[in-house]
Amino acid sequence: MTKPLITEDFLLHSRRGRELYERYARDEPILDFHNHLPVRVLAEDRNFQDLFDIWLAGDHYKWRAMRTNGVDERFCTGDAPAYEKFLAWAKTVPYTLRNPLYHWTHLELKRYFDLDELLDETTAPAVWARTKEALTRPELRPQGILEKFQVKALCTTDDPADDLRWHERLAASDLKTKVYPAFRPDKALFVRDPAGFNAWVDRLGAVAGIEVRALADLLAALQKRHEAFHRLGGRLSDHGLETAYAEFGDESAAAAVFAKVRSGRAADPAEQVRFASFLMLFFGRLNAEKGWTMQLHLGAMRNNNTRLMKRLGPDTGFDSIGDYPQALSLARFLDGLDRENALPKTIIYNINPADNYVFASMLGNFQDGSVAGKIQLGSGWWFLDQKEGMEWQMNALSNLGLLSRFVGMTTDSRSFMSFPRHEYFRRVLANLLGRDMEQGELPDDLELVGGMIKNICFSNASEYLGLGLSE
Fold first, then answer.
1. What is the pTM for the complete model shown?
2. Going from the N-terminus, what domains does the chain have, and what CATH number goes with each?
3. Predicted confidence band at 470 (pLDDT cuts at 50, 70, 90)?
């Protein structure tokens, strides 16, 4: 049999790296403060039927690889039976060598099912049968998975127009893992699409119990929903933007744009930017007032394939890294809030490696001594959440900020099979610092360096987010 890929030394290439991982990283609990897990599935705690159900459905990373390998769309997002879709993925896996999908695939099969076999079309039938039986066990139901991987808390991504009933159900349950909603109001900015925007505003008004006729009503409804999230333990907002918005205008100008769009007419590009800038300041103020953390996911270029976007919809694998100018608008946005003394704790996620140093240098402009690491460079995101991308992010942060205050990894995932991403990150972190120790670039002091690693894995995020967690 071929030597297993996932061994105790996986990604660890030095004695010090192995010691750091084993003593200070491996056993730390998980705080997954940004993900897209379906909260209803978690609340209902149903059994997953098979590997397609838990692993392949909705995974646009795998779909991109399969399409690149010549797999027909029927086996990605189409109507092929679940087992045939799994076989199509298994046949693709050997072609993903040196893609992080190869590592993630085998790490996940090992940690969930204790499988050492390399997945391909010859091993696929046995893997499917063995995992299908294992998925009937309580420890591989959604809530059991959280306990298995020592997930202390997770924060899902929720629209202000969501009614949050599944979060309420979880809050009233005896689930040990804390599950909190994170406030994602991106649809409030889509004023270039009157039909979609107005339908969303109507849903928001209904759940808030406010008839939204004017901008003041919209702001009142958003604030009311922000308070509802807060009551359920929510302490983060999240914003997915191409760039920060910083063309500030007064409330009357934003009100005019809102009225125009509610009448069924689309905002023009300049109006959209001014309206979004106004609302982003509003969200920042709400967060500062409540002591929340604001997350900015910047730079993704979404829905590039018009034909397949129309056919399959968003979040199906047709997004990429954007090369937008970032520095000026980001500085103006952060400064706009800071001038009002209303800049909340902020995590900025970068998707373009060319901007790592731009973003890392921006942090220091707005650190004010009130909170350690108040402005954070978020972990390697989306196309950068792999070994090289993680190292780039940590090197930029180390050189221009304080790695020791870093709040660490999130899965940013829709899959309950993604919690080993934390292990992957921790191994990369331990290997990076272990190498520096062995090269004499860091003190050969396990307690000093290991203590920093331990904090990055859990404690820093727990303290920074103020979720009231302990190990």
1. 0.97
2. 15-46+145-465 (3.20.20.140), 47-140 (1.10.2020.10)
3. low
